[in-house]
TrEMBL record:
Protein name, per record: D-inositol-3-phosphate glycosyltransferase
InterPro entries recorded: Glyco_trans_1, Glyco_trans_4-like_N, Glycosyltransferase_grp1
Transmembrane segments: none
Organism: Capillimicrobium parvum
Single Gene Ontology MF annotation: D-inositol-3-phosphate glycosyltransferase activity
Enzyme class: transferase
PANTHER family associated with the record: SULFOQUINOVOSYL TRANSFERASE SQD2
Domain Glycosyltransferase subfamily 4-like N-terminal: 17-178, 448-547
Top-level lineage group: Bacteria
Enzyme nomenclature, EC number: 2.4.1.250
Assigned keywords, A-Z: Glycosyltransferase, Transferase
Name of the gene encoding the protein in the UniProt record: mshA_2
Domain (Glycosyl transferase family): residue spans on this chain: 189-350
GO biological process, one term: carbohydrate derivative biosynthetic process
Length: 751
């Protein structure tokens, strides 16, 4: 009879920091799924522990403080390791002593590393220890079964320290969303903290250590009070630099700074905030950001570790260049001064946080532990995934996204099969009977494919309008065969809202029935997910943005003054065409007279689907190219200095991601998923939709400022790296693994 897997989780202290909370969530989740879990703290155990013990987790406190005491405790730790099947270690000294114990006990060991910058890696007492961390990784990394990183940014560092790349696994941090939101309702009131209701509250939750940079929050709030009036800074946490920061606040006369010390319910304090800040000098994937997003608290942070990746994926905050104090203060001021922006960030963050739930993290760790076991189960048999959507050679964004799937890491991990349900290569001009025949043939192939044996999953891609009708039938047909289904909505929020309003209540109920029949509904933006919830009443939508293509080798952001040889112009490129009014081409045409008058060096190239626009009095400075095939569009993009997207409604446009990956300066609208990717003034310029005056002014300003174009282009390329294929496709792979039926049972396991 198979017994539960025995896991020993070792850490320095079971405290209340971010890494410690990850261990708490992990231990409880593993115990709830049937594992026998013991948590060992080398030093002390701090409350709360009830959630762990009630789940059946055993907690041991060795009371060993300092290197000598922990070395003396090594025999006891080794005995505990011998009783386990796998040893897991978190925090640097736990990874040292825990790995030694596992090696002595001849047990496989898994390590979680949460540090990034060794130069400022210090103990809780402030003593430098980065070189010791590096040294023991070099010695013990090759002897470790798996090293887990919570941030992609750690992989290069650990590989340089001798950890084999094939033993590095990325598992993002996760939080129990419902618990975090429940805890927020049990926090203090503003009155209890002496904060007026009308004050703007900025919260910083972190240990008082060098890398957390609380002094920047003090300086920022002091500056904002001059512009915005009553702004309060609330600090949660303790640590070696707490007294220093309190003294500094006193010297500044900062009676507006509130120091709360250690709080067992940090989300309860965050819930009072108008803004959460994290100006960290170094970080990986801080829990506080995930908690703030889950609570709908906007975030402003430095671009460090995977912070930018999280904020880009969720759209719940603003990320500024690392250690750019002026940009940080400006971003905080912009968010605090704009109620509408705060509400938008709040809604996006609350929905985007669903991608970072603790259950997903626990499942991925469980897979790592299973792979570390001697005589481990054979790898999962290859999953077959039907990609159902329009002709891959068709025009538009959705075929481009689907083409990306077939050249992505997903195509290496799984067998992807394509089934077309819409066959025209030029949307809108095909014979309707031919379209119907294409759909009928695609539906028949889908049913036949689903009825075959083996591990199979159906991934259906849809826009709106007629696509919803066709793909709803596909969802119901695939579910009738018993196959798991993902319905992936690529439409913008404006299109979704307009379509739901137009179809009436009966068809909305029918579409809601079909959407709920899918095992998961995916949206490319949090704004799109919100409109699906509003229009159809369907909840639990997963947000997975489109992936930015890999940066071309020659696409390093060029100096903005380097236009094509022989021309002096600043080239503005628009690729949205005029077939779909939602692309905003008509707004750009309205903006042209003011733009051309204000920026004499500008030339504009327009391309895309649809009829040629009516252009008058442009002096030959505007040209229309019509539809461009992929190579020609790529060449036009390479020649552009500025890429403009004047969209009225969008999902997450592929051309935006291509422009970012090539390091182009971008002017776009606050439509759909665009604000979830671009932060105004940081890695692009945003204007309101349908505002030709603002659009012309933004383009003219960029055309006249070469240094600004260069800065935005460099930041755009960095943002594209965080939305790369590996990040986005890993999230889809997680969904596939979650929904895929279990492979045939194999022998060998824990007995």
């Amino acid at each position: 009879m198979t017994r539960p897997r025995r896991l020993l989780l070792v850490l320095s202290n079971l405290g209340t920091g971010g890494a410690e909370w990850q261990v708490r969530h992990l231990a409880r989740g593993l115990a709830q799924q049937g594992d026998d879990v013991t948590v060992v703290a080398l030093g002390r155990v701090l409350p709360p522990v009830e959630a762990l013990t009630s789940a059946g987790v055993r907690i041991l406190e060795l009371g060993a403080f300092g290197p000598r005491a922990r070395l003396l405790a090594l025999p006891q730790l080794t005995r505990l390791a011998r009783r386990a099947d796998v040893v897991h270690c978190t925090s640097w000294d736990a990874t040292l002593y825990g790995r030694l114990a596992a090696l002595l006990a001849r047990r496989p060991v898994v390590v979680s590393d949460h540090a990034t910058d060794r130069r400022i890696h210090v103990s809780r007492q402030g003593a430098p220890r980065g070189r010791w961390v590096s040294a023991h990784h070099r010695l013990l990394g090759p002897l470790t079964a798996t090293t887990v990183v919570c941030a992609r940014s750690q992989e290069q560092l650990l590989a340089a320290e001798g950890v084999p790349r094939d033993r590095l696994v990325h598992i993002p941090n996760g939080i129990p969303l419902d618990e975090v939101r429940g805890a927020a309702g049990r926090g203090p009131s503003r009155a209890e903290l002496g904060i007026p209701d009308q004050a703007l509250v900025v919260v910083h939750v972190a240990h008082f250590r060098t890398e957390k940079n609380q002094e920047q929050t003090l300086e920022t709030v002091a500056a904002l009070r001059n512009a915005l009036g009553d702004v309060r800074a609330v600090f949660v946490g303790t640590g070696p630099r707490e007294d220093e920061l309190r003294t500094r606040a006193q010297a500044m006369g900062a009676d507006w700074a509130v120091f709360l010390g250690r709080r067992g319910n940090a989300p309860g304090v965050m819930a009072l905030a108008d803004l959460l800040v994290l100006p960290s000098r170094a970080d990986t994937m801080p829990m506080t950001i995930l908690e703030a997003l889950a609570l709908g608290v906007p975030v402003v942070a430095y671009d460090v570790g995977d912070v930018g990746t999280v904020l880009a994926a969720t759209g719940g905050g603003v990320c500024v260049p690392h250690m750019d104090d002026a940009a940080f203060t400006a971003a905080c001021g912009r968010v605090l001064a704009d109620d509408r922006l705060r509400h938008e960030l709040s809604d996006l963050g609350r929905r985007g946080a669903a991608g970072y739930d603790a259950d997903t993290m626990v499942r991925r760790y469980a897979d790592v532990f299973a792979s570390a076991l001697p005589g481990r189960p054979a790898p999962m048999s290859r999953l077959r995934v039907a990609q159902v959507g329009p002709d891959l050679h068709g025009r538009g964004g959705m075929p481009a996204v689907m083409q990306g799937l077939f050249s992505s890491p997903l195509a290496e991990r799984h067998q992807l099969d394509f089934i077309a349900t819409y066959g025209t290569a030029t949307y809108g001009d095909a014979d309707p009977w031919r379209r119907a025949a294409t759909f009928a043939g695609g539906l028949a192939r889908l049913v036949g494919w689903s009825l075959r044996r083996g591990r199979r999953l159906v991934h259906i891609h849809t826009a709106t309008r007629g696509s919803w009708y066709r793909k709803s039938v596909c969802v119901l047909a695939a579910r009738a065969t018993g196959r798991p289904v993902i319905l992936h909505v690529h439409a913008g929020p404006g299109d979704i809202a307009a379509f739901c309003e137009r179809i009436g209540p009966l068809r909305r109920r029918l579409f809601a029935w079909a959407f709920r029949a899918a095992d998961r509904v995916v949206s490319v933006s949090s704004a799109g997910a919100l409109e699906i919830e509003r229009g159809l009443g369907v909840h639990g939508i997963v947000v997975v943005p489109n992936a930015a293509p890999p940066r071309p080798a020659a696409a390093a952001p060029r100096p903005a003054t380097a236009s094509a040889p022989g021309r002096d112009a600043v080239e503005v490129l628009y690729l949205g065409g005029f077939a779909n009014p939602a692309k905003g081409g008509h707004v750009l045409v309205e903006a042209l007279p003011e733009l051309l008058a204000a920026a004499p060096r500008v030339s504009v190239t327009m391309a895309g689907l649809g009829p040629a626009p009516e252009l008058r009095d442009t002096g030959g400075r505007v040209r229309w190219l019509g539809w461009l095939e992929r190579d020609a569009a790529g060449a036009a993009l390479a020649d552009a200095d500025i890429v403009v997207l004047p969209s009225i409604s969008e999902g997450l446009p592929v051309v935006l991601l291509e422009a970012l990956s090539q390091g182009k300066a971008v002017v776009a609208t606050r439509a759909g998923g665009i604000p979830e990717v671009i932060s105004d003034g940081v890695d692009g310029v945003l204007v309101d939709p349908a505002d030709p005056v603002a659009l012309a002014q933004a383009l003219a300003r960029l055309a006249g400022d070469a240094a600004l174009r260069t800065r935005l282009g460099a930041a755009a390329a960095a943002r594209a790296d965080r939305l790369g294929h590996e990040e986005v496709y890993q999230r889809l792979d997680d969904l596939y693994r979650e929904l895929a039926p279990a492979p045939p049972a194999v022998s060998a396991g824990v007995r």
